């Protein structure tokens, strides 16, 4: 007997890809917690070791669209396996690095594997879930990355501090290779490229609405990261939170983000813009409140948790809108939304840093974040206003 609950169940492959996203998210963020150990081992300054974070972001920014095109003719199962093997190899190179240059090469390779996974994996997940559940499928994948913030990064950082920074790199390499084996066995062999072509992929980018989604994605992500990049001084120096409690506050942010991802994934398929617009508005309001009133530890921690819940609600919905606008099975449009997130991270952290050194001081990063997210309401409003017209054109 098949009932509504059965029809709502996501395919197992979506959950498998969500688990892989957990590995990818752990890799992307873990270096920040191990910078002192890495800098000492490689004989460079902490800021020099910080280039490992920068080169990973650049690899994701460039690698996602580039690798989506390079793997266009490959069956999607083969592309995912290749992505995981490149990701694993990058971590092996990183663990064996005798100097910073080799470590940067390994980090860039890992970023290419990560970008390829997101470009192809998002297509596989949304195609498996179907149009009616594509946002839920993306909620699972984004949730994997969010869970990496809560569990993977703290555990990996602790392990690296005890057993040496190479330990987490080796662990991620082994788990990625194991995931490649599971995908080879579990993903259907006929998961092909769906008749896509370079002309078709580029043609899909002609939709004006698609670029509005990319713009909104970068602005919202940038607004959140403008504040979150400097969460430690905001909590300790302005709100008076004890230094040892900062990880717990960040854990609260991650828990809020996981709740927001789940909510956005479930609601976004039915009412995307009725969810996106309020979530963005609330995010901007929370950032403004953080700038103005987060002068005690209780208020600051509550605002950080709520920021995670409201801000990250938008992520799976925005990715789901790319699927709806570009059509299913489009790797390049999916890759560019990954790049949009990276642009937001880079611009937001840069703008927040400028604000921090301005006359605004500690009020600056969340204030800049609020402005960025408020600006995102313009493309979101345009998308909402033209949604019915666009749907009618698609139907015709």
Q: What is the straight-line distance between the termini?
A: 36 Å
Query: Can you write the helix and strand succession as a string?
Result: HHHHHHHHHHHHHHHHH
User: Helical amount among residues, as a percent range?
Assistant: over 70%
Radius of gyration: 20 Å
Number of strands: 0
Largest sheet: none
Number of helices: 17
Strand % is under 5%
Query: What's the average pLDDT?
Result: 87
Given as residue ranges, the uncertain stretches (5+ residues, pLDDT < 50) are 1-7
Q: What does the overall shape look like?
A: globular
Structural class by secondary-structure content: mainly alpha
Account of the protein in words:
With 396 residues, this protein is mainly alpha-helical. It has 17 helices and no strands. The chain has helices spanning 4-7, 12-42, 46-49, 51-70, 76-95, 100-129, 134-163, 166-186, 198-204, 208-228, 231-238, 246-268, 272-293, 297-326, 331-356, 364-385, 387-395. The chain starts with a helix and ends with a helix.
Comma- or semicolon-separated keywords:
396 residues, 17 helices
Topology (SSEs and partners):
Layout: H1 4-7, H2 12-42, H3 46-49, H4 51-70, H5 76-95, H6 100-129, H7 134-163, H8 166-186, H9 198-204, H10 208-228, H11 231-238, H12 246-268, H13 272-293, H14 297-326, H15 331-356, H16 364-385, H17 387-395
């Amino acid at each position: 007997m098949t009932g509504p609950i059965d029809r709502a169940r996501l395919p197992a492959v979506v959950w498998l890809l969500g688990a892989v996203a957990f590995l990818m998210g752990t890799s992307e963020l873990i270096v920040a917690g191990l910078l002192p150990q890495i800098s000492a081992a490689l004989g460079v300054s902490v800021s020099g070791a910080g280039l490992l974070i920068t080169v990973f972001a650049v690899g994701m920014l460039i690698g996602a669209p580039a690798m989506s095109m390079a793997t266009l003719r490959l069956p999607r199962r083969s592309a995912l396996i290749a992505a995981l093997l490149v990701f694993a190899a990058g971590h092996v190179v990183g663990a064996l690095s005798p100097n910073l240059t080799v470590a940067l090469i390994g980090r860039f390779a890992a970023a290419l594997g990560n970008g390829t996974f997101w470009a192809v994996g998002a297509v596989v997940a949304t195609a498996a879930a179907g149009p009616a559940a594509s946002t839920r499928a993306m909620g699972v994948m984004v949730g994997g990355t969010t869970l990496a913030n809560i569990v993977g990064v703290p555990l990996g950082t602790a392990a690296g501090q005890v057993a040496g920074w190479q330990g987490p790199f080796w662990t991620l390499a082994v788990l990625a290779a194991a995931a490649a084996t599971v995908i080879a066995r579990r993903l259907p062999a006929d998961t092909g490229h769906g008749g896509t072509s370079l002309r078709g992929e580029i043609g899909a980018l002609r939709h004006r609405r698609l670029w509005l989604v990319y713009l909104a994605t970068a602005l919202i992500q940038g607004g959140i990261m403008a504040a979150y990049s400097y969460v430690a001084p905001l909590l300790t120096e302005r709100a008076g939170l004890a230094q040892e409690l900062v990880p717990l506050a960040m854990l609260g942010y991650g828990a809020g983000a996981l709740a927001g991802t789940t909510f956005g994934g479930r609601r976004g398929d039915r009412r995307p813009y009725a969810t996106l617009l309020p979530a963005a508005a609330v995010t901007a309001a929370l950032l403004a409140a953080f700038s103005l009133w987060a002068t005690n530890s209780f208020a600051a921690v509550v605002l950080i948790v709520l920021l995670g819940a409201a801000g990250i609600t938008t992520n799976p919905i925005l990715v789901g809108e790319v699927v709806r606008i570009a059509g299913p099975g489009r790797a390049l449009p999916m890759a560019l939304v990954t790049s949009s997130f990276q642009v937001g991270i880079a611009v937001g952290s840069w703008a927040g840093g400028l604000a921090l050194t301005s006359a605004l001081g500690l009020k600056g990063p969340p204030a800049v974040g609020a402005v960025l997210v408020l600006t995102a309401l313009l493309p979101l409003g345009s998308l909402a206003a033209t949604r019915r017209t666009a749907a009618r054109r698609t139907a015709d």
